[in-house]
Amino acid sequence: MHYHSGVTAFLPPTSEPYSVTESSLTERATWRDYYELCKPNVVWLMILTAIVGMCMATQGAVPVDAVIFASTGIALCAGSAAAINHLADQHVDAIMARTSGRPLVKGKIDSQGAAIFAFVLGSLGMIILLTWVNALTAWLTLASLVGYAFVYTLYLKRATPQNIVIGGLAGAMPPLLGWTAVTNQIDGHALLLVLIIFAWTPPHFWALAIARKEEYAKVEIPMLPVTHGSRYAAVHSLLYTLMLFVASLLPVATGLSSWLYLIGASALGGVFIYQSVTLLRTMKNSDAMKMFRFSIIYLMAIFPIMLLDHYLLPKPLFV
Fold it and tell me: What is the pLDDT of residues 153-171, one digit of tens each?
């Protein structure tokens, strides 16, 4: 697919031109509409993993100002990337039931307003990171923003069924960003935290894509279940879930975490594998959604468990 300037740039070839009704344009945007433009649930999860990265980088307490400035800067840049994603995908979002209520689709915010909002958020985030955190964290954050908002959203998403695998690296960066915010250097242990999220991303998204296969096919986004079939995607989801299980145990093998994390990661990983096997066995959309929902619980749980292990069972940094 070729990209052109103008509002038709992101239209799938067979979709009807999207237009906002005149009545919807009269609705005034509220702060909640702009807040939704930032994909807040995703951003909060990213900030959780970034803060865990900060804490894991040091044995003691992380300075409060470091947490505040780094979290704010990372959140603003992540919100900017999300707003660009909304802007680029608004015509596709209008067709898919899951996304048809988004602010740009409803006409509460226009394209120009969303673009300005994204630019302001990204600029503020970079200023905060460059001024009050460090340049390494700022440039890594910018690389993540560009990777998600432009490389993934504008190219990979429509170019290859491996879109979420390649593009998932940008979304896996927050623990590293948190780590570098405290230490100003890239560490191998931080990369292990990135690896966990990187391995988690494909089964997380492919479970949703299996359940929403018809919608993705309708807008001609080549998600793996669309191009290779749902069973093929389910097999690869299981393989990535097994990879995730191994990756999640590496912090124990390298001395970053101890037995408390080992128990938690093993239990969560076991449930995730069970969900993946169940989906492969039944191929029901309901089981795909169960797996998708559990994948969110998995990520929300495994990092706090790592944090508990870190502070309850302090270890030398690092054996």
Answer: 889 898 999 999 988 999 9
Amino acid at 34: Y
The answer to whether the beta carbons of residues 138 and 173 sit under 8 Å apart is no
CATH 1.10.357.140 fits 28-186, yes or no: yes
Residue pair 166/222 in contact (Cβ under 8 Å)? The answer is no
* Extents of the domains making up the chain: 28-186, 188-319
Q: What is the pTM of this model?
A: 0.89
